[in-house]
Amino acid sequence: MRKSALACGLLATAAFSAPACANESVIKCSADPNQWCIQSGDYAGTRYSKLDQINTENVGQLKVAWTFSTGVLRGHEGGPLVIGDMMYLTTPFPNDVIALNLADDQKIVWKYTPKQDPSVIPVMCCDTVNRGVQYADGKIFLHQADTALVALDAKTGKEMWKVVNGDPKHGETGTGSPLITKDKVIIGISGAEFGVRGSVTAYDINSGKKVWRAYSMGPDAEMLVDPEKTMSLGKPIGKDSSLKTWNGDQWKIGGGSVWGYMAFDPELNLIYYGTANPSTWNPVQRAGPNGKPIDQKWSMTMFARDVDTGMAKWAYQFTPFDEWDYDGVNEPILAELDFGGTKHKTATQFNRNGFAYTFDRGTGDLLVAEKFDPAVNWATGIDMDKASKDYGRPIRVEKYSTFKNGQGQDENTKGICPAALGSKDQQPASYSELTGLFYVPTNHVCMDYEPFKVSYTAGQPYVGATLSMFPGPDEPKRMGNFIAWDGAKGKIVWSKPEQFSVWSGALTTAGGVAFYGTLEGYFKAVDQKDGKELFKFKTPSGIIGNAMTYTHDGKQYVAVFSGVGGWAGIGLAAGLTNPTDGLGAVGGYAGLSEYTNLGGSMTVFSLP
After folding, report:
1. Given CA atoms 299, 302, 308, 311 in this order, what sign does their dihedral have?
2. What sign has the CA pseudo-torsion 471, 473, 477, 483?
3. Of 42, 96, 127, 325, which one is the catalytic site residue?
């Protein structure tokens, strides 16, 4: 056994009960709830903190402790890290990284400003966001908009190495946050709306040298799949599983980008992540040579891969032959759930298509698949009959098929729920160890969808559909809910309506509180048991960042970015007014301008 394996075998994360082997510095740091060392809180992606100084009894007394302007407008996704006395944060393009000394009045210790060509901005699909830096081994890792992956010295901000992960001239950009496991930095690529071929790549943590790359579609060897050993729903995927499900060589511009948060199980040595939509959004152009739907594997897929080799252990495709842009990149959350007295080590994902999926994370067996928004109408459910030829596939409603309705092209299919931005998009959910429930920020938005023929040109949008978005069917109208979800039963425990989509990442704590932000700019705290609102505060701009918590000098703080933008807020962020701009979001969220404006700041709260 290697020395690194022996060393990290002595440590364990809070998210896993048995000794685990991973990056030693990350495990040690994330096991301390006083720090916030991973964007997702821990390797399991739970976004849960054991801190309880702030609790349901006193959270209503929260006051603003301090604020910080990032100096950049547009959408602020992700959140800061806290390691010891230092806080590290990043901004939207130009992706400044700023280090603050919490022990010295939040003094700016260093600032790193990448040199990037502004021509990358028009190639970024849905705002110039960045989902946060990561930390390991005394380094801060940044994934820039231009796809460069950079390692910075955490003490000085000095650039230690830099590697280019893609080419913006071909539509490839960087918006996701890396995952640091063992001696590897793992990062995906954005750009499915530009006809990229998605991939995830592991780089050496010390040198930046590429270790392995796994594509989302194409030949088995390039995807790092084994026809006999890589499983899907308990069966081998078979030879050329991807190539057989594409029309000709369309897989070469097939989408399937990777930009969501990832999770890691050190005991199984597996990373988990989702792949995005197939390109183009016009399903008619992706049909098989006989004019019938074909799956387009492995877009819209959850992968479980060996961190050392990149080889896929299992894969599951959420929405075969996507007709609605129901991207599959949302974060997996690892937990132990109770199924009738039997504990399962699970991976749960709240998919854009409106279904919440719970898997056995070792085998990929599908345990639960249920709607987490009752408005979902494109499918009645997921076929859970293992004897069925359609096992694991959605049971579609023909009325909402943009493929069947769009055979003549330029045909508008109306009233589809959810809209393309899904019942949940990038905004990460949280799993609370206190209640055993998931807390999920959701969208309650529907759409009209009109495909049109589009030609591929490298570096140009390859969308092929016009969308109009609008609130879900309920009265009074609303566009979001914050929900508590039972992952084993597949049921909503409670639901708190919000006027606009809840585009902010959730945080849960041992104090019984769930935190989240709203697009209007409110930062809220609710009781995990029943969703009762305990606190709210209007921040300077709409919140699409992720709440986090830490302690300093024995005092607990909660922090969140405000800075409206992202897909939902692209109209404000980019100054768009045509209702169908922003891939349909501008019209749907037009009312946001009455409640908030552009911003770029962090608000930090504490008890008096």
Report:
1. negative
2. negative
3. 325
